[in-house]
Design a protein that fits this description.
Layout: H1 2-16, H2 19-28, E1 34-37, E2 44-46, E3 51-58, E4 64-67, H3 69-76, E5 86-89, E6 103-117, E7 121-122, E8 127-128, E9 134-145, E10 147-148, H4 155-164, E11 172-183, E12 188-208, E13 213-226, E14 236-242
Parallel strand pairs: 1-11
Antiparallel strand pairs: 2-3, 3-4, 3-14, 5-13, 6-12, 7-12, 8-12, 9-11, 10-13, 12-13, 12-14
């Protein structure tokens, strides 16, 4: 009788949860298998880091594409360098009331978004090859944050820029991966990551209540929204940095 009950329950469960559905869940939870082969012919000298590096990108399936120095340089060749910001006040300085005085901001996007490659940051521990060479697995878990030009410090200013752009702004995104680095004998280094951003340029108008109105405009304001992959992770280029 007990065996018969078990068979009936198992049959009902199969009817409710098809085998195909279980397989789909398992596949969706599989982590990316990122395998990186560090070889001399893929290395080049990076003057910014003053080190030999090997650059690579990882797609949504975990496949690795190795980049030459020319390809990495091309990704940052057309990005816009920041110009100095400056404030233009209204013709008559406003009289600030004593109580319940509120300022707000309106961002007017003029240019962008442009592709911008950020500075390389260290995202792994130090790696030292085994005596005869071999594989080392390293966990990469970092969060890339938005940033703004100097002088944009208040939450209200940042919110105005986020709301005033002509695309979907991303405040932050994470990288959570495990890379298996295949090293040659004597090699050592670490993994770096140069994140990608959407760069915008515009003007930030300042207003106030209680009859004050328009106060002035900060020209040449820059905002940097984090670029993401199809999986919602931070996008960018990885670098094995040798030392």
């Amino acid at each position: 009788m007990k065996k018969l009950c078990f068979v009936l329950i198992f049959t009902l469960l199969i009817g409710i949860f098809p085998v195909g559905a279980v397989n789909v869940v398992a596949n969706e939870n599989d982590a990316k298998n990122v395998v990186v082969n560090v070889t001399p012919e893929k290395m080049y000298y990076d003057p910014e880091l003053d080190a030999n590096v090997m650059s690579y990108t990882v797609d949504d399936n975990g496949s690795v594409t190795y980049l030459t120095k020319a390809e990495v340089d091309a990704l940052s060749a057309n990005q816009i360098q920041e110009a100095d910001s400056y404030f233009e006040s209204a013709s008559s300085p406003p009289i600030v009331p004593w109580v319940d005085y509120i300022q707000w901001y309106v961002f007017k996007q003029k240019f962008g978004p442009y592709h911008y490659q950020g500075s390389t940051i260290k995202v792994s521990r130090d790696l030292i090859a085994p005596a005869e060479g071999g594989s080392i697995s390293v966990s990469i878990n970092n969060t890339i944050e938005e940033f703004f030009s100097a002088g944009i410090t208040s939450a209200a200013q940042k919110s105005a820029i986020q709301a005033g752009v002509n695309f979907s702004w991303t405040k932050s995104a994470s990288i959570t991966e495990t890379h298996t680095i295949n090293l040659l004998p004597g090699q050592s280094g670490y993994v770096g990551f140069a994140p990608y951003y959407n760069q915008v340029i515009g003007d930030l108008d300042t207003y106030a209540n209680q009859g004050v109105g328009y106060i002035g405009t900060t020209r040449n304001v820059y905002g940097y929204s984090v670029k993401t992959t199809g999986l919602g992770e931070a996008d960018g280029v990885f670098k094995f940095i040798e030392y």
